[in-house]
Amino acid sequence: MTRIGLVGCWAWLLLAAIGCRTDRGSTLSRYEFQRPEMGLPFRLVLYAPTPESATNASEAAFARIADLNACLSDYDDASELSRLSHSSGSGIDVPISDDLWRVLDRATLVSKLSGGAFDITVGPLVQLWKRARRQRELPPAERISDALKKVSWKAIELDSTDASVRSKPTLHHTAKLTIPGMRLDPGGIAKGYALGEAAKDIRLHGISRFLISGGGDMVAGEPPPGKSGWRIQVGVFDTTNAPSPRFISLLNHTLCTSGDQFQRVEINGIRYSHIVDPRTGWALTDHSLVTLIGNDPMTTDALSKVVSVLGPEEGLSRLRRFPGVECLVFRQPGESVEVFESRGLRHWLGLPSKYADGEP
What we know:
Blueprint: E1 29-37, E2 40-48, H1 51-72, H2 80-86, E3 94-95, H3 98-113, H4 123-135, H5 141-148, E4 156-158, E5 174-177, H6 190-204, E6 210-214, E7 217-220, E8 230-234, E9 246-250, E10 254-259, E11 264-267, E12 270-273, E13 287-294, H7 297-310, H8 312-319, E14 326-332, E15 338-341, H9 345-348
Antiparallel strand pairs: 1-2, 2-6, 3-5, 4-5, 6-7, 7-10, 8-9, 10-13, 11-12, 13-14, 14-15
Helix pairs in contact: 1-6, 3-7, 6-7, 7-8
């Protein structure tokens, strides 16, 4: 099975109302489905009136994720994304699907607004650091320098469709990669896009109460019957002196996590993350866990990498360019653990704001 290179981390999740049951006073029953896609398990919990309606919605959601994997995988040389990578430096405008165009269009926007902290062309560097984790040895500096020459979101040229109609399907999209040897790596954005598209299919099947998750990212619809939201545990940091985990009540939003808890390597006493700074070419050494809540799964997925790369202070400052996105960061630069949170996070934690009205 093909899979998309995953930039992110697994989160410990605590879901409310475990087990299939019918709520008192409700005709909706709880159903749960799980299937491996994109190289990781996707889990869907939903409330539906019949087993058939639940099954139909789940099949549509998983089929959409599988189709997107076939389009966006950077492990499969036959995927549409890989074929575009292979065309880099050819000078050819390659026709691309609406799905690939949407991912590239959003990726370049996030790259621009983050000052290049997110870059979907980071593939040549990611390949070097994957080998570093396998071999437990640092990439030679000259190889990092060579790979950096092939990394630039500005070298992606998309067609000139007017921005006012970008949300509408079109019959013609093209993309061109202008630097030879470029390699697209959608691991920081494709999973969010897939979850968002799967959620659309679930809603099209008349299901509004659902939670779909994959590898630490999730999209929530309406809450379970009788509940105010889906109760999710966040902030489980893998250090002995970490603060207590927190709980949020999630509904009609997405949650994405990023960090080095499960994908890292220690070389010469230094802990290197699987997340690579596309501006320097070096893997992050800042031990952190980033949790973001937002409206759009694709954007929120990408922004979780932006905060990881930029660090909490600058990262939270950049998030102000994306209204509706809230953030929690646990970071351990030394012996102690630092906690950072955006202004609106306390709403999701069920806490009163610590800011006065009108305070920036």
